[in-house]
C-alpha cells in the first residue's frame, strides 16, 4: 500500500514538472509572420512622418531575438538589418526594439564625394500574429542626408518662388559638418559650395554664406527621411548689382523734325523709344572701305526705332532686375497688335515717319500681367549684363510640369554637336542646314551662358543692348557660289537662312514675313556695299 502511494506521488510530481516545462516552452513566437510586409500590412513611421514606401521583414531567432530588415525604407539604403529584442504581450502580439549603426554612405550619394557616412537607426514597434506590423523608426546621423537631389527629390525655392530642373548635393565633411553644393542655381555661377552645413536632430539646417563670386546666399532646408525629399529655400543677393537692380519702364517715343538723310529731309524722325538702336557704317567702293558715312543706315535705324516704339509698348510695360538675379516683366498676355504697313511705305515714298502721337496712342494702358520668377535671370560679368533664359522652367510654365522635367534632355541638346541638333530640328519642320556650324555654336553658347548685353546709364535713360560682336557672325554676308539672273554672285547671311527657316516652318506670322526684305538689306550694308563699324540693338529704359 505504501509502495503504491509512493508511485502515485511520483506520477503527480512528474506531471507537474512536465506541465511546468510545457509552459516554459511556449512556441507562440514561431507564429510571428516572417514574410515581407508592406502596404496595409505595414504601418511605417520614420522620424515621426508616415512612410508610404518600402517594406519590412522579420526573421525570428527565438522567443526573445529577431532581425527586422528595412527594405527601401531609409532613403539610400536598400536593406537595413536591425537586431531586435522580442517580448510577448498578452494576446497575439510581440513588441520589439533595436538599434543598427551604419557606416556606409547611402546609395543616393551618386556624385557626392564624401567620407563614409554614419547613421543610427532605432526601431520599435509591435508585430501581430495575423500578419501585420507597426514600426516606428528614428534615423539620425549625417548619412541620413548625404546624396544628390534633383527632380521630385528636391523641393527648391529661390527668391520665394519654386525653381525646377536644378540639382543639390549634400556630402559629409566630418562627423558633424556637411557641404551643400548647388548646381546652376545662383545666376552667374555654375556651382556654389556652402560649407559648415549642420543639420539638427530634426534634419533642419540654415545659415548664410558668401560664394566664390562674392554673392551672398541665405539658406534654410530640411530633409524628410520618410520621403527622401530635400527641401531648400534660398535667398541671394548678387554682388555688384546695385547700379542696375531696379524696376524700369519703357522710354517714351519721341521724334525730331528736319532730319537730313540721303538728300531727303525726314519728318517725325524717331530719336528715342522702347527699342534702342544705333548703326554706323562707311561706304565701300570696289571692296575698299572709305571714310564716307553710309547714310542709308540712318534711315534703317529710324525704321528700327519706329517698329520697336510701336510694337513693344503694346506688349511690354516694364521690367524688373532684382538683386537676386531674377528678371520679371509686366506684359499683356494676349495683346491686340496694331501696326500699319502704310507707315513704312510713307517713309520710303514721302520721307515721313508716323507722328509721335500716332505711335504713343498704341501704348496699352491696362491689362498688365507680371511674369513668374525663375524664368529668366541676369548677372553682371566683365562690364556687361548677361541675360539667361531658364528653358526648362519656361517650358513647364507653358506646357505643364512634365515639360519642366526635360531639363536633362535640354542640357544634352545644348551641349550637342550642331549637325546633331540640326537633324533633330528637322523632325519638327525647322531646316537650318544652311546655317554655318560657327553661327550655330555662337547661338548655343549664348543660350547656355547668357546673352551679353551692354548696360549704359545716360541722361536718365538706361540702355541695355546687344552690340556688333553678337550680331557679326549672323549678319555677315558670304558668297554662296551661286549667281543670279544677271550673272552676279549671290550673297547670303546665316540670319537670312534662319529667317527663311522660321517663315517656312510657319512660326512667323504672315504679316511678319514681309520683313524679310529688311533682313536682306541689313546684310547688304553690313559688309557688302558698306562696312558696319557699330551696331547696337536693345531696350531704352527709364528707372522708376
TrEMBL record:
Superkingdom, natural source: Bacteria
Key words of the record: Signal
Signal sequence, start to end: 1-19
InterPro entries: DUF4925
Pfam (any one): DUF4925
Name under which the protein is recorded: DUF4925 domain-containing protein
Species whose genome carries this gene: Bacteroides uniformis
